[in-house]
Amino acid sequence: MTHSSCVRSVLALAGIALLIPLTGCERPSADTLQTGFRGTAMVQLETASNTAEKLAANQLPPPTAALPPSGTKASAMYQNVQILGDLDSNEFTQLMLAMTSWVAPKEGCAYCHDAANLADDSKYTKVVARRMIQMTQSINADWSAHVKETGVTCFTCHRGQPVPANIWYSNDGYTPRVAYAGYRAGQNVAADSVALASLPEDPFSPMLRDSGQIRVSSNHPLPAIGKPTPDIKQTENTYGLMMHVSDALGVNCNYCHNSRLFSNWQESTPQRVQAWHGIQMARTLNNEYLEPLKSTLPAERLGPVMADAPKANCTTCHQGAAKPLLGVSMAKDYPSLRSHGTTTAAAPAVDTTPAPPATPAP
């Protein structure tokens, strides 16, 4: 046998040896869910491992047992009850126990309260919790266009942690992650916030704090007075936000858009309108409830760059699922979280959010 023949034989044997471990491997089967129009390939793919991960990440806490009415209001039973005072004291106690399991199961009541004086407001966590109850009521009462009848509770975001795992702080493009790179305008390094895309890592400041236009191209041919023209930065921020939304919900672009023409609302799914309301909701929550807590929070809870308060984005609630907690409603068992005010009766949900334009711009 010649030398070249030996070499060929050795290479052939090596190739067979490399293939043997692969003979038992095959691409995992995937279920498809049609979410758009027929014939447009607007589907979502789900593998067994994806499903298992989502189920594991969305386990519900045990329910808090309801107590029979006491006939006494919480404001008469306890001191310094500034909200929820009109609840029956036993319903109030049930909600407090539930909030403890949702937010601070290890720390217990002492996470917010002085155990020797429950009425004391010296702990910042109690002041924050009071405001978060009001925010939860606002989400459920005012933003039904996004949360529908499912609603939210503290557990939707906290998942048993005092600080939700998925919050964000502004850096406004000023954080050089690589020292020698200088000012990077907040991009050109793959970031988790935009699903590892090399896009601006903080699309939230312009889009979920400010009212930046979510658009990648102009709807008029030339610059014109009174008609803003998207620049490259706005386009990049838009793509960054869209990558975030897709990653946060565990879906692809076709969940909302027809890829034939992403901008066309008539060819989009109803989920796109729901997402539009979600973006408006996030802006409102960040500006009216979360950012104002800056003066209440200690320095270690503020952002490392801009010293701003922690804020919410899509991942804060969704955490990889198209519907938070896979669509299970916990809010239905806590009517006091479903309406404004302090009464136990749940007021009808009134959607006060602005509607999308009748003919949305592309």
Could you walk me through the main structural features you see in this protein, from its secondary elements to its overall organization?
With 362 residues, the protein is mostly helical. The protein has two domains: 63-154 and 325-347, Orthogonal Bundle (Photosynthetic Reaction Center, subunit C, domain 2), CATH 1.10.468; 166-318, Photosynthetic Reaction Center, subunit C, domain 2 (Orthogonal Bundle), CATH 1.10.468.10. The chain has helices at residues 3-19, 48-57, 74-77, 89-103, 124-142, 144-147, 154-158, 204-209, 232-249, 270-290, 314-318; strands at 30-34, 43-47. It has a two-stranded antiparallel sheet. The protein starts with a helix and ends in a 44-residue tail after the last helix.
Structure summary:
34% of the residues lie in helices and 3% in strands.
Task: Give the helices and strands, then pairings.
Layout: H1 3-19, E1 30-34, E2 43-47, H2 48-57, H3 74-77, H4 89-103, H5 124-142, H6 144-147, H7 154-158, H8 204-209, H9 232-249, H10 270-290, H11 314-318
Antiparallel strand pairs: 1-2
**SS field, number of helical segments:** 11
Strand order of the largest sheet: 1-2
Q: From the helix content, strand content and strand pairing, which structural class follows?
A: mainly alpha
Estimated helix fraction: 25-40%
Poorly predicted tracts of residues: 342-355, 357-362
- Give a quick account of the main beta sheet: strands, pairing sense, barrel closure: 2 strands, antiparallel
Proportion of residues in β-strands: under 5%
User: CATH superfamily name of the largest domain?
Assistant: Photosynthetic Reaction Center, subunit C, domain 2
Number of strands: 2
Q: What is the name of the CATH class of the largest domain?
A: Mainly Alpha
The mean pLDDT is 85
Please compute the radius of gyration using only Cα atoms.
25 Å
CATH architecture of the largest domain: Orthogonal Bundle
CATH topology of the largest domain: Photosynthetic Reaction Center, subunit C, domain 2
Shape: globular
